[in-house]
């Protein structure tokens, strides 16, 4: 019997796939091209000339560094909170049975399923009712709502693929809860947590809508880019920053994919 894997895809399917990829990625390539243009005030195609001067200009812009620093700090702390809360929620849902477990699981993933503007309005209303001024921490709390979901989804899937007999054997051999977690559970879920953490960092770094409702007068990189597009003064600088955002978000996603692509095997299930 002939295997389907050896058959070539139809020409029409190849063309459709190529058109789809171009539609998705050609605008990103244009961002990279306009980062080198000599035209300062408008986007002209083709660019009248190419230069690398905007990289030096961007490097010396203090507002860029302030926005970048804020985005990195927010993403890092939001990811740390998400790793703790997401892992604990995943362990509870996947390893224990209790009334309302599926409802709790739904409530955990709900923030990322809802439109961002709904989450943003809800958070802004909650902060106003609690008389909490907008600050660095309001942005962190806003980002943590969806970062927890990313970590939770990765962790709960890995928990469910980890054999419970390994934990039971560890406990039977005299290990306490902490030792079992350190030597049995953590090694099995570490790559899932790392992947979830990197995805959470990438999502937080380029988040716009929730940040708009929770940042007050502060500017993360995406908010800074929106402001620059509305009131431009050096358009290529915006494209240079966009290149940084693309790299900062793309590399963790690729690394997360690499870590989780072979995660469909059940650890401890035997041969």
UniProtKB/TrEMBL annotation:
InterPro entries associated with the record: Bact_Polyamine_Transport, MetI-like, MetI-like_sf
Keyword Transport: yes
Residue ranges annotated for the ABC transmembrane type-1 domain, each copy included: 68-256
Cellular component terms (Gene Ontology): plasma membrane
Membrane topology: Multi-pass membrane protein
Record has Transcription as a keyword: no
Cited Pfam families: BPD_transp_1 (PF00528)
Compartments, as annotated in UniProt: Cell membrane
Membrane-crossing segments per the record: 12-36, 70-93, 105-128, 134-156, 240-259
Any single biological process term in GO: transmembrane transport
Keywords: Cell membrane, Membrane, Transmembrane, Transmembrane helix, Transport
Domain of life of the organism encoding this protein: Bacteria
Family, similarity comment: Belongs to the binding-protein-dependent transport system permease family. CysTW subfamily.
The name this protein goes by in its record: ABC transporter permease
Lineage of producing organism: Bacteria, Pseudomonadati, Pseudomonadota, Alphaproteobacteria, Hyphomicrobiales
